[in-house]
Amino acid sequence: MSELIDVIVVGAGPAGLQAAVHAVRKKASVLVLGRPHKSAIYWGHVENYLCVDGVTGGKELLAIGRAQALRFGAQFVEEDVLGIEQRDGHFDMRTESATYLARTVILATGTSKTKLKVKGEKELTGRGVSYCVDCDANFFRNAKVAVVGNESAAVDGALTLLKYASEVHLVVKELAVSQELAGKLAASSIKVHSTWVKEIIGENAVEKLLLEDDSTLAVEGVFIELGAKGAMELATNLGVQLDMETFSYIDTNKRQETNLAGVYAAGDIAGPPLQMAKAVGEGCVAGWYAANFANKQKRIEAAD
């Protein structure tokens, strides 16, 4: 069995880093999973954050935050989380190359779902175009499908679709995944196309893809999986409740607790305003209470 970690933070942006700092300072073991450049702030600039003088690059701020968390004792693994399952009161966290076991989880990865931005995508969304393999795979049983993307969500999604579809294609311009995940792809029956999508074609439903090499690919469904597995996807598969008004964010209380004991959320994934100041504040709260929860669980386990 994997080592049991007190707090696993999913996301290495402002909310995740602040959560890691506060959790580890409360004597909890902390692991942060995720890649810093996936944070929305990484490529941006900050000038409206307290005590930041002038305009500061998000990349530089995240580097400082990561260094702080490391100095206090947090650990980092720069891999995407592909799945979370609750088992025997703990949480199995599956990444590209390993599985980690946690007492508590803090979801802090943001909410954006990147669009492909090609002709036919908007018109055929919900009619063969999907952004969530875990949500919609069952609708494509015995169908020919394609997954578009270069990173872990695309490869993991394509591997999942092998259980449902009759034929799975992966359209990938430049593969950027771990060696372990690349090995699984190579060993599978997935047909890989080293190009990109120019247009999604169909009258009332997806019929085919026009690729940049001017070839066409006849499919009934196309899954656009750009980047890492979305936090909303991870959350809903776990059974975490979304806000009842828009179903766009994870519902939390003032302790950043979700409806599921041991699962917390902070930052953009917990709703607007989508600002770094809010993300850091919520990360502080989530880290504090997640560590308290984990430490309480350890006392209970020790007494049994």
How do the helices and strands line up, and which of them pair or pack?
Blueprint: E1 4-10, H1 14-24, E2 30-33, E3 45-46, E4 56-57, H2 58-72, E5 75-77, E6 81-87, E7 90-95, E8 99-107, H3 121-124, E9 129-130, H4 133-136, E10 144-148, H5 152-161, E11 167-171, H6 179-186, E12 191-193, E13 197-201, E14 208-211, E15 216-218, E16 221-224, H7 231-238, E17 263-265, H8 276-303
Parallel strand pairs: 1-2, 1-8, 2-5, 8-17, 9-16, 10-11, 10-16, 11-12
Antiparallel strand pairs: 3-4, 6-7, 7-8, 13-14, 14-15
Helix pairs in contact: 1-2, 1-8, 5-6
Can you describe this structure?
The protein is α/β, with parallel strands linked by helices and 304 residues long. The chain folds into 2 domains: 4-112 and 230-303, FAD/NAD(P)-binding domain; 121-224, FAD/NAD(P)-binding domain, CATH 3.50.50. Helix content is 29%, strand content 24%. It has 8 helices and 17 strands. The strands form 4 sheets. Strands 1, 2, 5, 6, 7, 8 and 17 form a 7-stranded mixed beta sheet that branches. α1 (14-24) packs parallel to α2 (58-72), α1 (14-24) packs parallel to α8 (276-303) and α5 (152-161) runs parallel beside α6. 44% of the residues are buried. The model has no long low-confidence stretch (mean pLDDT 92).
